[in-house]
Amino acid sequence: MLYTCPNRPKCHVSRPLNAMPISISDPATLVFQLNGEAVSIPASCSPQTTLLDFLRARGLTGAKEGCAEGECGACTVVMVRDLDGRTVYRPVNSCLMFLPMAAGQEVYTVEALAASGSLHPVQQSMVDHGGSQCGYCTPGFVMSLFAEHYRPGRGDGACDPHSMGGNLCRCTGYRPIRDAALALTAAPPDAFSRRLDAPAPPITAIASAHFSRPATLDDCLAILARDPDARIVSGGTDLGVESNLLGRAFPHLVSVEAIPDLRIFHETAREIEIGAALTLSEIEAAWKTAPAAFTEWLDLFASPLIRNRATLGGNLATASPIGDGAPFLLALDAAVRIAGASGTRTVPLHEFFLDYRKTALARAEILVSIVIPKPVPPIVFYKVAKRRLDDISTIAAAFSITLGAASRVTAARLAYGGVAPVPLRCIQAEDILTGSTWNRRAVQQACAAIAATLRPISDHRGSAEYRLALAQSLLEKFFYECSEAAE
Ligand SMILES: Cc1cc2nc3c(=O)[nH]c(=O)nc-3n(C[C@H](O)[C@H](O)[C@H](O)COP(=O)(O)OP(=O)(O)OC[C@H]3O[C@@H](n4cnc5c(N)ncnc54)[C@H](O)[C@@H]3O)c2cc1C
Ligand code: FES
Ligand code: FES
């Protein structure tokens, strides 16, 4: 069935979509602030309608559809969100947001920037530096740069060009766009600045047949227990792609964004507990004691736009063999807390992935948090991909080696993604290293164990042989880097 937006007789949208209406019990809950005005989400909209389609159907055609899978950033809009106690503008891919996720939220599109009749300083800087040719990507770049321009605490220096890391341009070239960012100074003391002085809107409950957003864990579990078709959605960066490109229908989406238990960040002397529904950007802001490898891991994970929506819970629950969260957390000996009708249980992460895309989550269970024991051991993360930034892994590896007296290995964790149907630790190689002296011979023996036990597949990202060679050479690289650091 083709989705035709109710707002316009001729909508550009022609992807097949599940056309079930939202049929909300209280239509008043489906209102959000769009460019400063309250707009209602029509009850006749499918919950799988994207925010992008809705905006364009209203005539706000600045945001474009380039890919519909979070890769190009042409659809970028900003949301007003709380980040570690401060109100910020967060740029997001509107092509990956299901429309009801915007309910109660505050969204700005590029149209709001020059509403007064003159270009916003960010737009003017793009003009002055020749940052746009065909213009297709430009509103997306402008919105990412807009959010960066108003980033609290940025001061009056240049904007960080990396803030536009989720935006692609096919014709201008990046240097003029970078120049536009570097030429910007302090954000003007205008209405957009003043907006950040007030709190961001809270994320509130929604209850309907096809889209629910419970505000407590108990309510969420009750919904999941009642409806066998219910599908949890967190940031939607995986499910949005499934909906847009694979045409998957989700009869009942249950958003976990409003559940406080899934949005905690606690650090004690014993452990760090990270709520499953915290976005990666929120974890970055909250985890002040994170090891350096976390920042490196984060920089290699998708783009700023994706990281503003993607959650760690979604990354583990989706159980992709090439997901980046699992190897990093496996090397840290993390565990996951899972809640269900019969209570809460804690499962070590190395027992969580059962088979290809299959986890220890039973029906109607929910991933609540990820627990990292302390002290956090030294760790490195390597990601091999076709591009350095904003790409999916061919293989990823996270290694943690703890040395005792006389360079003897007291603990070894060698975790991989992309070498098997599930992310895993190579226990055989870990066993060889543990108790050995950390030297080239031990590493060679561990590499032999890796070759004997890992069974990667061949696909368009790399052959099985290539992946196996990488799995070994990354360990060697780690050893040589350790040796160099010790010299
Ligand atoms: C352009 C692009 C680039 C990407 N790059 C990377 C990358 O570099 N590295 C990488 O690892 N991934 C990458 N991804 C994949 C994706 O962003 C991550 O897997 C992300 O962490 C998923 O989180 P989410 O909150 O968006 O999940 P969602 O899409 O909301 O959910 C994903 C799955 O998890 C389930 N789920 C979500 N939360 C819970 C929960 N609390 N309990 C139980 N089940 C739950 C959902 O039902 C669904 O099956 C990329 C995706 C895109 C679109
Ligand atoms: S349309 Fe390409 S990221 Fe949204
Ligand atoms: S200006 Fe044409 S794609 Fe960027």
Question: Can you characterise this structure?
Answer:
By secondary structure, the protein is an alpha+beta fold. The chain has three domains: 1-213, Ubiquitin-like (UB roll) (Roll), CATH 3.10.20.30; 257-376, Uridine Diphospho-n-acetylenolpyruvylglucosamine Reductase, domain 3, CATH 3.30.465; 379-487, CO dehydrogenase flavoprotein, C-terminal domain (Enolase-like, domain 1), CATH 3.30.390.50. 28% of the residues lie in helices and 20% in strands. Strand 17 (395-403) and strand 18 (409-417) form a beta hairpin.
Annotation keywords:
single chain, 487 residues, alpha+beta, Ubiquitin-like (UB roll), Uridine Diphospho-n-acetylenolpyruvylglucosamine Reductase, domain 3, Enolase-like, domain 1, 3 domains, five-stranded mixed beta sheet, five-stranded antiparallel beta sheet, 28% helix, globular, disordered N terminus, binds flavin-adenine dinucleotide, binds FE2/S2 (inorganic) cluster
